[in-house]
């Protein structure tokens, strides 16, 4: 199987930031992108903290969603109208103040749905802070 992504990390960052301004505000960055595999980073900023001194859930959720979007584009190319159908996220422990890494993989790609998995880790610790699965709906191809 060809492991080359249908979009580069730099192209995805440009498209993602333009299409999802929150990703730009959070400064989410793509570190690597291959067909069906993605690694993104949420850099630490003081405004990400919540009571208890950990990274907020909404920021982590956004990182998960952007990672899944990258996985879809890695497999099908630029599909700006691919949209989240569902995401289930389990927060396993607080993410301490610091960068958070997302490691994602495409579990299944069909004609209309893409199923993804993402694990989040503190950049300074290899223990998972969250695990998520989700589904993206792909745009209909003419004639569907």
Automatic annotation (TrEMBL):
The keyword Hydrolase applies. Residues 52-127 form the Thioesterase domain. One of its GO terms (molecular function) is 1,4-dihydroxy-2-naphthoyl-CoA thioesterase activity. Pfam families: 4HBT (PF03061). GO terms for cellular component: cytosol. It comes from the Bacteria. Keywords: Hydrolase. The keyword Hydrolase applies. This is Uncharacterized protein (TIGR00369 family).
